[in-house]
Each structure stands twice: as structure tokens, then as C-alpha cells.
Amino acid sequence: MGRKTKKEVGAVVKSRGVSFRVWAPFANAVGLSGTFNEWGETPMESEGDGYWFVELREAAVGQEYKYIIHNGDKVIKKNDPRSLTITTLAGNSVIVETSFDWQDDKHVYWPREKQIIYELHIGTFNRLDPATSGTFESAIQKLDYLHDLGVNTIELMPIGNMMVEREWWGYTPEYIYSVENLYGGRYQLLEFIKAAHQKGIMVILDVVYNHFATDQELNMWQFDGWSENDKGGIYFYNDYRSSTPWGDTRPDYGRPEVRQFILDNVRMWLWDCHIDGLRVDSTIYIRNLAGQNDDPANDIADGWYLLQRINTVAKKINPQSFVVAEDIGINDYLLKPVREGGAAFDAQWEVNFPEGIRAALRSSEPEDIHLDTLIDQLKRRFDGDPLRRVVYIDSHDSAANGSGRFSELIAPKRSGGLFAREQSVIAAAIIMTTPGIPMILNGQEFMQGGSFNDWQGLDWNKVEKHAGIVEAYKHLIALRQNSYGLSAGLTGPNIDIFHVDQVNKVLVYRRWLNGGPGDDVVVMINFSNIAVDNYEFYVPANGIWRVRFNSTWNGYSEDFKNIIVNDIPANNNKASLNLPASCALILSQDAV
Fold first, then answer.
1. In this structure, what CATH number is given to the domain that contains residue 278?
2. What letter would DSSP give residue 580?
3. Is the same domain home to 476 and 496?
4. Please, what is the Cα angle at 278 between 97 and 313, to 5 degrees?
5. Whether the predicted pLDDT of 2 surpasses 70
6. What is the C-alpha separation between 98 and 556, in angstroms, rounded?
7. What is the spatial order of strands in the sheet that 10-13 belongs to?
8. What is the pLDDT of residue 164?
9. Residue 4 clears pLDDT 80, i.e. is over it
10. Residue 526 sits in a domain of what CATH number?
11. C-alpha angle with apex 82: 338 to 43, nearest 5 degrees?
12. Do 525 and 508 lie in a common domain?
């Protein structure tokens, strides 16, 4: 499926000077121009395999450069596709020193059963000035907050150089090796990773390999002057396979040089930058032309091979690296090992989970509450393992694209109101007690309203305003991680939804690892606004069941109902309680 990997592609700083290597197989000649030769043209030598090379002693870190590509009568000036820094998108590549004082930094690892992911957009996460972008440096200031919340995995939305006015989420990449200057650039990123690791927090990164930016201003477009059918040239398919929902820029996964371009990017993030894992965007459009599952006619065999190689490379660099697929098509083979024909991802996003949450919690009126989708989601497993899925209330996708954050959607323009707060705490309780890896969208835990966007910074005043909601998240995360030694079942893979009351809109389920006191957890949700006295239900064992979490507690908000639920005795595996309206209760027995 390939060829020998080419080493040291791009600008590589040597002990004396800098070497430059670029792939331009259809060029007649390639020259190098930069501040080191007063923007003249230094010829590069063809290596006979499509690559061109030169080493210059006079070149140095911090200097700018471009390649000058000759193809027949055409003379094209291009930035290095592997630029580690560029001045601006319309500017120049910059020579970068890749060494960094990591001190004793090492990759951080958390097992899936203990992970709490926080999806973080650097540009809006912590803006010190509303008129400027958030940066890695300003994000470092909030690491203590995230650690205290219980977060142990940060998922960074894409951080590559992007044209802000085109798309500042980062999902239409232009330079996948370069770090956005508005965010602070490469050096600040490395400082952020090191600082996160010092807090015991993993850092994973969203990467986009299914398409590139959508227009012909893209630097890689017809890079060396060659193309077919007026398509994108050497980095892209030049036929019908180029088409994606975002433009004609699907990479040509069948070209070994293109695969190496992507796989070397994986190596850079995990090896050079100490990133602990990746979330690979829209894998379904890497593996299928139409973005469809079970659609052999449109499957891309080379794309599947690339996904396998991404995970093989990641595990070779760091056997504990955490690599997640976002794949709308939900295919168990994404998780199976390569030896079985799988792509070997560690987990998948559960993209349908927000739909189930919203259908159940959009209203507290019984006739408007729909539990079936949520019940299906609670029971879902990927390749037989529920802990190989990432579950969430909101993500950058579900909270945008014509929709809104959960709190905004259920209470438009009243996202901080009583109903939104009550339902948000119940939703958080469901996420933290669902078999899977919980993910929080930045600001969710302090009732950030509206939709997710790239222009509105988070309102950190809400942390104080909604301090009780933040406290609820802390309590739920601690239970999820069994921090008190009373809820080991929440770290296990097992769930039994043993009580579904469609009349009263009550759901009760058991979670367990090995079972028994301190392990078995019973989760009880009343989705309706009607309280029920002497509500009977079954429990796994006799004895006293204690309430570990009660969403009505007024410590979470002064205007919550504060319905006290005392210890619950059980005989013949039967218990009863006065069930509050609109509540989530988490019960367990004391450990022996």
C-alpha cells in the first residue's frame, strides 16, 4: 500500500543552517526564496522521486521563505505545506526551531472509566479582552478551575492556521502543521500542554483530514501547477472522489506522499508536541464518498487504510494514546483491531445522544416528554463495549448549526432561568451516570447560553452567578469517578434499565461494576413536573439505600425545591419514597 517514507520533509533546522525538502512531482524546477537570499531564488535539486531538496547554511530560525515552482510557462510562489508557522495566510512560511524545554514532561493517561472530557475552543474559552482572541496563555489561567471541576481530559478544537473570516472553528483547515498565531502560536501551545500535564490533565486534539479549505486560495491547491479536470492537483483526488459537503478538497489517500503528509502530522502532534490523543473529524467522509455507512459502492479503501495507519502510528508513539472517531455512521469496525480488519480507534462520539437528552428534557409536561430515544441511547454499545463511546449533552456541532446549547434550546432567551437550571442538572446527572465517557462543552457547567459560536467569549461571571450548578457538576463528576468509594458501579460497563414508567415519566436504572455495597448504584429520574408519593420500585439488595445526589437541593440553586429524601430501607428488594417532581436521584449503599 505504500512506499518508503521520506525523511525530513519541510524546513529542518540543522546544527549549521537549514535543510528544505518539498514534494512537487510535476514541477520542471523548484527554487527557494526568502530573507536569507534577499528574496532571490536559490535552485533546489530534484531527488528523482518528486521531491526537491536544498540545504542552506545562511538560513536561520525566524527567517521567512517561499518555494518558487516552475511548471512549463507557469511560475508559482507557494508556502511550505508543512509550515510550522506562517506570518499570515497571505504571508510567508517561517523557519521554526522545534526543540522545547519539556523538563520532565510525559504523556498523561486516564482510563476510559475515569475520563471526563472538556471540549475547549481556545478562541472563546478565556478572552481577557472582548476585542481579542483567547490564547493558550489565557487558557492556562483556567487549568486550576478545570482540575477542581474534576476534568482530566481537555479536547482542543482545531488549532491550525485558519482564515478567520472564513471559519474560525478550525474545521476547514489550511495549514495542518502550523498553529494559529491569534491563539499564541506553537510555543504557547507547548506551554499549555506542559501546564495541563502538570495538573494531571490529558490533552487531545481535533484534527481534520477529510477535507481542506474550500476555495482556490488554498495554498495546496494545484500546488505544483498540475491538475486534472480543473481539480486540486497533487494533494487531492482529481475526479468525482474529490467532492465533499465542504468543497472539492478530499485528500488523495491513495497517494503515498499524501498519506505521509497526514501521518507525519499525527507524529508531530503526538511526538513533538506531547499531545496525548486525537479526535479525528468526520471519519465517515474519509472512509466513504457519500458519508454513508454500509455503502460498499462508495467506500474508499485507501481512506480506511489511512484510518488504520493513523491508529497504528499513534500507538507506536504512545501505546496509551487516546484516539477517537467522530463518525455519524456508527460502525463497530472502527473500533476493532487492524488484524480483524478494523480501524482500531479507542472510542467514538455518540452523535445521537443530544437528541435523546433533548427529547426527554425539553419539557416537564408529561405529554411532551419522550423517553424512548434516551432509553435506546443509555443501552447502546460500540463493539460490545459502552465505555468506548463519548456521550454528551452539547458539542460544538449539536449546540450550533442552526441549533443552540441545551439550556437555550429548552428555554429560549431564558437559558439561566429556573427551568433551564433544573433540567440542566438532571441532564448532567444522566450524562455522568450513563455508561460511556462523559464530555462537557466549555461553559455548559455554568449555564452559558445561546448557541456555540466562534465570536462570543464565555461569560466567566456566570461561574459565580451559577456557583451551585458548578458545584452540582463537581459532585456528579466525583460520583462518576468513585471519588468517595461509594459509587464504583458508575465506573463499570453495566446498566439495567429495570423500571420504565411511561405514565409518570419515571426512569430507574442500575449501574454496577462487580455489584454489592459501595458498588451498585441506582439512578432515578422523574422527568415530569408531578411529584408522586409512596412511589415503589425495586433495588438490587435489601438494607439501607442512601441518597448520594439530589438535584432538587437548594445548595445547587437557592430557588430549587429542596425536597429532602431520607435514607430508604428496602425489604424483599422493594423500596418506596416520596418522589419529587423534576428530579434526579442517585442512590447507593455504604461500602462494607
1. 3.20.20.80
2. P
3. no
4. 75
5. no
6. 47
7. 10-13, 18-23, 51-56, 45-46
8. 56
9. no
10. 2.60.40.1180
11. 130
12. yes
The CA distance from 447 to 404, in Å, is 12
Dump pLDDT digits (tens) for 365-394. Answer: 999 999 999 999 999 999 999 999 999 999
Q: What would the mean pLDDT of 19-36 be, rounded to a whole number?
A: 98
Cell of 91: 504571508
- Mapped onto helix, strand or coil, the DSSP state of residue 190 is helix
- Residue keyed to cell 441506582: 522
Binned at pLDDT 50, 70 and 90, residue 126 comes out as: very high
Here the cell at position 536 is: 415503589
**pLDDT at site 1:** 47
The C-alpha cell that represents 195 in the structure block: 501546564
Q: How many residues make up the chain in this entry?
A: 592
- For residue 201, give the 3-state DSSP assignment: coil
For residues 241 and 504, give the distance between their C-alpha atoms in angstroms, rounded to a whole number. 52
251 assigned to some structural domain: no
Packing angle of the helix pair 372-379, 353-361 (nearest 10 deg): 140
pLDDT exceeds cutoff 90 at 401? no
Residue with cell 546544527: 15
Q: Residue 162 pLDDT > 90, yes or no?
A: no
What's the one-letter identity of residue 42?
A: T
Report pLDDT for 205. 98
| C-alpha torsion sign, points 489, 493, 496, 500 | positive
- Same-domain check for residues 75 and 142: no
Find cell 485558519 and name the residue.
Answer: 162
Whether residue 180 is contained in a domain is answered as no
- Span 151-157, mean pLDDT? 98
**pLDDT tens digits, 421-459:** 999 999 999 999 999 999 999 999 999 999 999 889 999
Instruction: Judge whether residue 167 has pLDDT over 70.
Output: no
Strand pairing report for 153-156 and 93-94: unpaired
Q: Is 143 contained in some domain?
A: yes
| Closest by CA position to 54, among listed 66, 64, 42, 65 | 42
C-alpha grid cell for residue 5? 517514507
Which helix (H) or strand (E) is 430 found in, with range? Answer: helix 418-433
Q: Are 429 and 477 in contact (CB under 8 A)?
A: no
